[in-house]
Amino acid sequence: MSDTSNYYGDVVNVNDGEKVIGINHGTVIHNDGTTQDAELQAAVADLTRLLNDLRPVLTTDQAQTVVSALPALTADRATLRERGMTLASVSQIAATVGEVGKPAVEALGRLLALLG
Hints:
55% helix; elongated; mainly alpha
């Protein structure tokens, strides 16, 4: 028999390492989260502004749905993830009004991308 080692997948050998992070298979941001929180706050503010601008071209029911959804838009990731149905309904309303709603749909896409 030979002394061959077969490794399938990632192999990491750490000998007396300090602050070892491991293998990064994607983008990892090593900060206190303030950068992402600022981006999230900006995305929520942008979407809120666009939805308010969109209200005059909506039907009464659509406008009421948007008004009801505005307080749900918060810069808290966990809360926004739980409010997926609210985000989906706002997205559908913005999409139904065509080109006028396109900026709101794009802003919602940016917000969802930040949520992961």
